[in-house]
Amino acid sequence: MALIAYILLCHKDPDAVVEQAKRLTAVGDAVAIHFDKSAAAEDYARIRTALADNARVTFARRRVRCGWGEWSLVDATIQAVKAALEDFPRATHLYMVSGDCMPIKTAEYAHDFLDRRDVDFVESFDFFDSNWIKTGIQEERLIYRHYFNERKQKWLFYESIEWQRRLRLERRIPEDLQIQIGSQWWCLRRATVEAIMDFIARRRDVMRFFRTTWIPDETFFQTLVRHLVPANEIVSRSLTFLMFTDYGMPVTFYNDHYEMLLGQDFLFARKISPGATELKARLGKLYSEQNMDFHITNEGRSLFNFITGRGRIGRRFAPRFWENESSLGRERELLIVICKKWHVAKRLVQAIHEKVGLPVTEYLFHEEECDLPDLGGIQSSLSKRTRHRRSLMRMLFDFHETSRMVICLDPGSLDLLSDFCSDRSVTTLLEIDCEFDDDYVLGHARRIGLAGSQSGSEIMRQILPSVRDAIASESDALRDAGFDNFYRLRQGGTVEQNAQALMRFLAVPEDVAHELAQTPFLFD
């Protein structure tokens, strides 16, 4: 009978990792865990302590600091695979899962499913002919060397590609490999995994090549399986059910998706919403159940395409995907810094990022060139960002894998503030009350088109009071709106007063708030 060794890659939520490991091993399967080395040491220690007595759980001997899109994710997988092969000699299959995956079938069903077919399940399509990649760079993933991370070092990432293109530094793909691409959530037979381990020990050239490709977790195992295993022993599909929106982002599942998930011809599903506690509880009990019948309908993708398709042709029987769960999420907190002097807000949020570690995005609804990740096109213009603002924010929360995030808004954006504050998520506001001298007010008048560079001093003298009054009116409107969780940082305030405001806004210790309140040149 099949015995599955799950390869569990995770980087957060140690309690959930422990529960997942206990759940998967309760019926005789095994788990090999790689916990991101970048995560907190105490979180890893908690996992090791909680699972110390579980003989069906092992850990990667070497932990890796993981980054999205990098070789480090493949390296982490290899480390967990090595531990699984060594510690679980009776395992017949190795199955890749993450902390966001949950079973949608029983262990009994999964074992029978694998016993019936002596094949490997890995999504693998021709890299160049399949059109699998929907957004972003394509052949550049392979033919150029990637030493920078697109998410963390965006400018360097694309400059590196451009310079390699200019200098004609394209490299050749190993001649005996036909590069494949597909989902990283595979389920492979033990013999196949052992063949891959032997291959990578022999072929250092292949390892050197993949180490500097971009997003190799979508190509490495997919390519090697096709290279080593006869085609009739490969089923090009994942056993993990996941869907993507038009913007290339994973669809998230909620409490009311339970019956639909059980009807899919898959063994696991991802991503489950962090707030879907009822769904998690029901799926958590499912894996160890026995004698359950599953009526496979497989309507998940067709229903999703139908509903979103109705939106495109103007005949909507249900909300579009970005409206279906229109909230940012009850479990999330959006922290908004509001300031007319944009450079002051930017200086503060960068200090917050450095000292508190929260992800920050500056004036994304006001500056076209604001640094944003590729979210499938929704971020490409100010009008799109504003029109689909809640969808955009949900994508940013997902991208940063966080429940708290900071953004900047101009005080003239009362409509945006009202919309975010009416959301079911927690919205916390910090207004930075700056002082405005005549030079700043006149410069602002020029920026918004009330005056030109050649406007005479008499005209400028006449409009000065009106512009100053407009700025004051925006601030008054904010206070009159009666927003909850509203705090103020004042240029004329003392360090103690401003530290108290920051402490309440960020929910940080007093000493951290004092450091932020004394950020050098904050109001200059």
Structure description:
The structure is a single chain. This protein is 43% helix and 13% strand. It is built from 21 helices and 17 strands. α7 crosses α9. It starts with a strand and ends in a 7-residue tail after the last helix.
Summary of the model, kept short:
This protein is of the alpha/beta class. The chain has helices spanning 14-25, 41-50, 71-87, 107-115, 140-143, 154-166, 190-202, 204-211, 220-228, 258-262, 277-286, 300-313, 321-324, 342-356, 382-387, 389-400, 414-421, 438-447, 457-480, 495-506, 510-517; strands at 4-10, 30-35, 57-59, 93-98, 102-103, 120-121, 125-126, 180-181, 187-189, 234-235, 240-241, 268-269, 333-338, 360-361, 404-409, 426-433, 486-490. 43% of the residues lie in helices and 13% in strands.
Key attributes of the depicted protein:
single chain, 524 residues, alpha/beta, 5-stranded mixed beta sheet, 5-stranded parallel beta sheet, 21 helices, 43% helix
Structural class: alpha/beta
> How much of the residues is beta strand, in percent?
5-15%
Q: What is the 3D form?
A: globular
Biggest sheet: strands, sense, closure? 5 strands, mixed
Number of strands: 17
Strand order of the largest sheet: 3-2-1-4-9
- The termini sit apart by 70 Å
Note poorly predicted spans: 310-325
Rounded mean pLDDT is: 88
The helix content, as a percent range, equals: 40-55%
- How large, in whole angstroms, is the Cα Rg? 26 Å
Count of DSSP H/I helices: 21
